[in-house]
Amino acid sequence: MSTAIQISSPTGVEHFDPPLPTGTTALEAPVRSVTLLEDRAQVTRRGTVRVKAGQNRIVVHGVAPVIQDVSLRAEVVTGKARVADARMRRSLRIRTADKPEAARALEEKIESLQHERQQVLEDQANARSRFERIQQMLHLGAEEIPEDAGWGMGMAAQWQDSFDALFRKSRQLRESMLQASFTAERLAEEISVATVQRQAMDRVDHQVVSWLEADVLADADGEVEVRIDYVVPNALWRPLHTARLLGRSQLQLTSSAAVWQATGEDWKDVELKFSTARSSLGTEPPVLHADLLTAKKKNESVVVQARQVQVQKAGLGSTPSSGGSSSPAAPTSVDLPGVDDGGETRNLKAPGKSTIPSDGRPNVIPLFTFEGGAESALVTFPELENKVFLRAVARNTSPSPVLAGPVELLQDNGFVGWTQTLFVAPQEKFELSFGPDDALRVRREEKKSSKQNTVSKWNESTTNVSIYLSNLSGEARHVVVTERIPVSEIEHVKVELDEEKSSSGFKLDDHGFCTWKVDVPANGHLVLQLRFKVSLAPGVQSA
Predict the structure, then answer these.
(1) Does the reported pTM lie above 0.70?
(2) Which terminus has fewer CB within 10 Å in the chain: N or C?
(3) In 3D, which of 204, 169, 236 has the Cα closest to residue 95?
(4) Contact status, residue 365 vs residue 353, Cβ threshold 8 Å
(5) How many CB atoms lie within 10 A of CB 37?
(6) Contact 482/379 with Cβ under 8 angstroms?
(7) How confident is the chain (543 residues) per 10-residue block, as mean pLDDT?
(8) For residue 366, is the peptide bond before it cis, meaning its omega torsion is within 30 degrees of 0?
(9) 251 and 224, same domain (yes or no)
(10) The domain boundary residue, chosen from 392, 417, 436
């Protein structure tokens, strides 16, 4: 049975349970590289140690105590030796502080602060009492002035002198009460801090200390290089991007990785790699259940339902598309929280070496930067927002994909805001919004009317949309306006666009988006009309 080792120090007593190893060879094996996953990290250590022929037990101190023991691997890279076994050891360091002088000083400080605060509160109470009496005197004096004036008693100069003196004293007492309140609040904070410090002296400090033990079998005396790999939790990374629009014709995008880690060990001057592999996804097959098939009578009535369909537009395709839109393929990746890699595992390497302390704070590591031409335009979607936005369309010219994540937006005049981007493959076009244009105003009005066609008995619903654009600047602006109309998927519903009563010059795509490219004159306005009709066949019900 092992017993704890007790060590005395000038500031107290500490002991380890179980005891630290003795008769071993220490190996300096710092962290050389780290591969970060979505919710964990793979750590690699390397170090050289001198061994003797036969069995040697080497120890690596300072290893993260949260290491997953089953992931521990150790091997000899160079040298005539092999690792017979490797394991983790943990010990609890118990330290009992003994500080009678410091505790007595803190107790005297707390008592002095409490006495001072009590005196301040008493002075504040006395000042409040005097202030209330003066307020009562002012109230009574104000009531007696009309009565004295009616009897011809008193003079205006005397009244003014009396009231000035009372008001001056009232202000002094009010300032004294306010200052006493601030002083009492400050003393309360100091008492709270000192109390916490005093309570900490009575607490026994516990700290988990861990180390790695490995049995190395050497054929002869000499130096061997040992590599150690293991996995630790409490470490993760997420993509983070910065986009800068230069003169509305160039876009510079920097892709970075935000790293957090609180593993208990600092990573100093290490090579960082970022992987989108999901090691925690699991490979267990789903449980099979029996499917019961039943016959159901066909419903005689047809029920239609209008639904919103989201069109993914993160990547706009490798070639320019007409009208500023495209029909990208549906995403093939699994919809999981974390890093979207487009369905293929990505491994990104940070240039140079980095230092990530174990404090749980974010650290931003730049990965790559690319710059290319941008097609900027002013766009508006009045149905969603009555604003005109500056949109920039650029191409990912880097060999690496732009992973889905937040984007910090910058322009020549500085920070603009934040937005989000989806996965963008290499050589694929994408768009970013750089905020609204304050010089342009948008207003949208929608009117609907319904009737039944007397001949066909179809129920017709007509929608008329009016869009008002105003330019408050002294320069003409070119704006791309996008509206939408429903798209029918069955023959029982018909959607017809009234081109005669709609503003000309629009383009209509397969998704029902109707786009105009218009010029709004300086200090002028413009009106656009969109009219369409939705017809339901007889007997068709709308959900």
Answers:
(1) no
(2) N
(3) 204
(4) no
(5) 21
(6) yes
(7) 42 55 83 93 94 91 90 91 90 63 83 92 91 86 74 70 84 90 91 84 67 91 93 93 91 94 93 85 72 79 72 53 37 52 85 92 94 93 93 93 92 89 92 91 94 86 94 93 90 90 90 93 94 88 72
(8) no
(9) no
(10) 436
